[in-house]
Amino acid sequence: MVLADDHPIVLLAVADQFSKIPGFTIAAMAHSGAELLRVLEKEPVDLIITDLVMQGEDETDIDGLRLISKLKRSFPNIPVIVLTMMTSGGIYHELCKLGVAAIMSKEEPASELSQVTLRALSTKETIISPKIQHRLARDGSTLQDLAREQPLSPRELEVVRLFAQGLSVTEIARTLNRSVPTVATQKRSAMRKLHVENHVDLVKYAARAGLA
């Protein structure tokens, strides 16, 4: 397997957990989306465990839904387990649509990761970790309910997420490999759909939706 996270302590914790389970071998670790993709071009692996949001090597690096989409396109036969602190139902729904093996909250104890992984490898359905399940149940929602409440497209979600992280439209365009006018249009479209009139409210929405 290959592990990817921009926090070394998380990588060490995950590696330690799997070192206790027979049959699992860690072939490599990566600290960014770009590094993960380079590793996968060289290392034959049968499982990817990756953080959803990672600080890149530079502003052209890849993470978020774009990274997961590329992983599923380029390596369709390798199961992908996503670790995340995000609480956005829209993000969960898009990850399920992309066909990830499991979505796990980083708030889970390390021991839960091995259980989620074993379950994910034994079924074709996306496994949702307990804390995410509890959050959805507490809100009286399902992934489908939250997706219906999430009016933004995957591209708009990524733009809003990066904008809430402090990137300018120009920086977002460079990061997502889109034109500045395209990103500006997607940001305006998101604001219109969300009925927000200024950037402060857009950032507040991102925080409430678990995008920031």
CATH third-level topology of the largest domain: Rossmann fold
Q: Please describe the biggest sheet, giving its number of strands, its sense, and whether it closes into a barrel.
A: 6 strands, parallel
Number of domains: 2
* Mean pLDDT across residues: 87
Strand numbers in spatial order across the main sheet = 2-1-3-4-5-6
Count up the helices.
Answer: 11
The percent range for strand residues is 5-15%
Helix vs. strand class? alpha/beta
Gyration radius (Cα, Å) is: 17 Å
Count of DSSP strands: 6
Low-confidence stretches: none
CATH class of the largest domain: Alpha Beta
Order of helices and strands: EHEHEHEHEHEHHHHHH
Head-to-tail CA distance between termini? 29 Å
Helix content: 40-55%
CATH architecture of the largest domain: 3-Layer(aba) Sandwich
- What's the CATH H-level homologous superfamily of the largest domain? Response regulator
What global shape is seen?
Answer: globular
